[in-house]
Amino acid sequence: MDEANSYEEQRRRQIEQNKCKLDELRLHKLSAAVRQAAAKPMPTKLAVPRNPRLDAPTRRSGRIASLPEQPDYRIRKANGDVKTESPDPVPVYATNEERAYAVAKAEQLKGQLGSDHPTFIKPMSHSSATKLSHLNIPVHFTQYLPVHDEMMVLVDEVNNEFDTLYHITCQRRYSLTGWRAFSAYHKLLDGDCLLFQLIERRKFKVRFSLFFFLHAILTRWVF
Fold it and tell me: Is 121 helix (H, G, I), strand (E, B) or coil?
């Protein structure tokens, strides 16, 4: 019983000491001031008037004003911002009949060239003709090519030369890197068919069978 009374007396003295410390630090007044400041409304910002000069039409010289209006290729986003982009050309896809005809013409030329130089035929897809920077080489043809990466030259029918890198990946895939310069120069399209003839150890002669569709099937280049 005496121990319980002693504990209660000690607890009471501790509480009184804590209250004295709080009074000395004035923490209760500080917390009340913080609550009072938080309850006050925040002042509203005044709207800045827009400069009327920004809404005025853009000044243009007489020479530029006389020119026809240029098409607007900007894409307007949902938030009103605009992003300028160049319009992509409409892709042209060959029909199955056009592909078959181009391949048949390439096969015909391959038979005429004989077997003095190894050759392979490569039909063009839309990606390989207009987008890819590399051109895959058939695996069966790699027996005639170097066993490691080397520079190779593509020669077109008017003897223009294009440098490419014959590259072998770790997955044993074989390609000509730098192909995009050749395909862009000759404006290759989906359905075109090319015949590659290895005339030297590191040089291909490239022959074309090119077709495109423009209201009718028109021959672009015949063997």
Answer: strand
